[in-house]
Amino acid sequence: MSFKKKWKFPFLFILLIFPVLFMSAGCGKKTEKAGAVKAKKVWVERWKIERPMTAKRAGPAAVAVGKRIYVIGGGEYGREGLKIFDTVEYADVAEDGSLGQWKSSAPLNMPRIYPVAVIYNGSIYLMGGESLDATFTGAENQRPPKLLKSVERAKINPDGTLGEWILEPEQMHFPRRGGEVFALNGWLYAAGGFGGDFLNDVEKARINPDGSIGKWAEEGYINKVRYISGYVQKGDRLFVLGGHVNSPERAMKSVETAKANPDGTLTEWKDTSPLYTRRFLNTALVKGDTVYTFAGHNTVNLASTEKALFNKDGSLSKWTPETPLNLPRRAAASVTVGDYVYVLGGMVRPMGSSNSVNVVESAMLKPGKPLGHPVEEGSKEYEAYKKWKASVPLEARFHLLHGRAYLKKKKYKTVLFDVQEALKERPDYPEAYDLMADTYFDMGELDHAEAALKKSLDIKSLNFYALIGLGYINFEKGDYNSAVKFYRRALKVNPDSEIAHFNLGNAFLNGGDKESAANEFKWVLKKNPGSKEAEHLLGLIEKKFKKK
User: Fold this and answer.
1) Is residue 38 a part of any domain in this protein?
2) Which pLDDT score is estimated for 245?
3) Within this chain, do residues 202 and 329 fall inside the same structural domain, yes or no?
4) 44-63 pLDDT, tens digit each
């Protein structure tokens, strides 16, 4: 007869502390005494929190005009529902990269969320998205936001201000929410997005000398449907990065590129180096010979960023991680001004309970350095950076929370994806290996579960969770001596653990050491007189002793 207690690994509660530090933007001047030694400046791999926008905007478009940033449309997801904006706001960038006051510019002709924007020949072109004048609550009788085919255009004045937005008479063939836009050689291109279904077509319109656009015509297809993906252009090369896909990971790594010919035709779209991290609702930009993509979503909101170099043949080099944002988010916008990059707005919290944010982060581009900024060594900002650098990234913690929830649903592929993504962010993350072990154990793959727990133990030798798990796996395999060793090690970490004493007793019992087993069950009953399992097994042992 086998005397075993069915032990399920306990749920791992993860306390999430949001360490988003609103760093000083340097609004005041510091008075220095004569002869004082200036503090040494050191480079920190961290984004800086800038002056927030006046509105909380998810899914906006953004462009940079000289040293001015314009953020266009978007919407606020909140408790009451979704409010889509027709407003435009702008801020000027100071020499040190900080932002001035946000101010209003001329509004759009209609509210738009998830539009796309591009500058060409002195005008901003804003395309697609979806629109609704009232707050969308999802009520049964309320009509949903309308998907848009239309294009608006605003002239950039010599002083950097914008003229009135003009609604172009010529509309795209398909409505496009979260598509891609490009402009070069006198042509405007629209691609991908959602128009009732995911799209992969490309259409183009001639840009007339006065800035207006002609009729739209089809111009081929991207190989994969592209919805809410990143997009950039470099010279005559167009690129689409990532995007939404119906899979457990919800996002793709795929990157495609095509060349625009002078006559407006495009070459065949071809795959180039895939992203380091699957993502959609990401934003992207080009600076010099480097392409960057920021934030987004796969199973969780992403703070991670990555970059690749443009090769001479028009392809991209291998993508590599860059400095992560402070705030994991999706549906943000990004621009570059001088030596600085900015990520603006977006959404936080899981899908279905989204909140828009007005948070703006900046980082400095410095040759040979990761994205970041200089701070004074020994300052509060520097000490805060060191603590942040040593902590587990929020994105990794989010992946573990998501994975734990999906383990309950037995969605094992999703859980293992979350584990791998967490380990990308923090390779020495024992809790990620613990979750990997739980998943393999639930799948009945004990060898894989054991290997994961041993990796966890390599990182954290006093990991009670891993020791208990290894004890149980060896018990399941019938290796009771090894199970005893792991349970004894677990008790050195936590001498008062009822489950460790009970399982040790069980291992002794199944290994034939009834006296040691009885001592462990007595310990359990002394601590918890109501333990029916310990009482039952101790009773069976004592009954066998009496028979002898």
Assistant:
1) no
2) 86
3) yes
4) 999 999 999 999 999 999 99
Mean pLDDT of 459-471: 97
Alpha-carbon span 356 to 330, nearest angstrom: 9
Strands annotated E in 419-540: none
Within a domain: residue 155?
yes
Digit-coded pLDDT (tens) for 289-321: 999 999 999 999 999 999 999 999 999 999 999
Q: Would you say residue 200 has pLDDT above 50?
A: yes
User: Do 345 and 403 fall within a single domain?
Assistant: no
What range defines the domain where residue 218 resides?
A: 47-371
β-strand partners of 307: 292, 320
Residue 9 located in a structural domain: no
| Spatial contact of 69 and 99, defined as CB atoms under 8 Å apart | yes
- Is 4 part of a structural domain of the chain? no
Q: In what order do the strands lie in the sheet with 123-127?
A: 116-120, 123-127, 151-155, 166-167
Local structure of residue 345 (DSSP, 8 states): -
- Residue 320 CB-density burial (10 A; 0-12 exposed, 13-18 middle, 19+ buried): exposed
- The pLDDT of residue 254 is above 70: yes
pTM: 0.88
Burial of residue 379, with CB atoms counted within 10 A of its CB: 0-12 exposed, 13-18 middle, 19 or more buried = middle
Residue 122 three-state SS = coil
pLDDT per residue as tens digits for the range 525-541: 999 999 999 999 999 89
Shared domain for 96 and 242, answered yes or no, is yes
What is the CATH number for 491?
1.25.40.10
C-alpha to C-alpha distances, 360 to 77, 211, 354, nearest whole angstrom: 17, 31, 18
Please return the burial class of 108, using the count of CB atoms within 10 Å of its CB with bins 0-12, 13-18 and 19+: buried
- Is residue 356 located within the same domain as residue 405? no
Cα–Cα separations (whole angstroms), residue 402 to 190, 350, 415: 35, 9, 8
**In terms of Cα–Cα distance, which of 206, 178, 207, 180 is closest to 191?**
180
The token pair that represents 130 in the structure block: 């979806």
Total of domains in the chain: 2
Q: In this structure, are residues 213 and 205 in contact, taking their beta carbons and an 8 Å threshold?
A: yes
Please spell the DSSP secondary structure of 376-389, one letter per residue. ETTSHHHHHHHHHH
Does one domain contain both 142 and 227? Answer: yes
Same domain, 353 and 216: yes
Does one domain contain both 296 and 426?
no
Residue 188 shares a structural domain with residue 58: yes
